[in-house]
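Practice problem: Large ribosomal subunit protein uL29m
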Amino acid sequence: MNVLQRLFQVSKQAGRFPVAIASNLLTTSSSRVLQHRQAIPAQCFSLSSRRYDLAEFFEDKKNLGENEVKHGRAWNKDELRIKSNADLHKLWFVLLKERNMLLTMEHECNEKMELFPSPERLDKVNESMTNLEDVVRERNRAYFELETGETGERPAKLVTNQLGLKFYYRMFEHVIPKYANRKWKETHQFHYRGSAVHKFLRMYREKLYNVKRKQRNRERNEVMHLLKRFPGMDRVALAEKYPSVDVEKLYKLDKIRGNYVPAKV
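Answer key — structure tokens:
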């Protein structure tokens, strides 16, 4: 008996299959599907509205043309630490969607020379995403330290670039060894030389020093102005707010003395 005859007999037997048995199998399969649907909790379904078009990248219609949009504050780390990993995963995509919408609206407003309403929303979204990344990194670090005794993060070291500026270089694996990887050596040079680089470093350090010096002078002048207007201010509070200013030394200067008569003790 060849293969074609066998297939013909199998097709005949399949044609004689009782209809009642087929109906019973269909009813049992449908009942199993219904039981499976009832067993799924209601939390697995999302009730939020879905719009699969370009309207996702633009502001809500009720906020169009407004000078200010009501919004909340950024998520801090203490609030994110008490959430589960699933909630953090969902919140990340919500923030990512909001950031994409805000960047699109900012670009559209710049193209049309219009005012972007409440631009601080973008800063708060970025702050929330940064805090969320820090919380996830804390959990990963704690898990790896508990399981393996290491942080689990990519190792890094403090190196200098060709301009003499220091930065953290995050290491990663290569197929070619370091001594034979000519392309990596050409793009990663952790040293500097030459009189031009030394001159640049001197001027750069001088610029940083001038920035700090001007900041100290501004804080000092602000404290002097406050002491001149309000001689009875709390010195401890001033010292905490302006740690770079010697408040006790400023009290001995003549510049803070205002046109008032000191109280007699």
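Discussion: Residues 14-48 have pLDDT under 50 and may be disordered. Students who identified this feature from the tokens alone can consider the problem solved.
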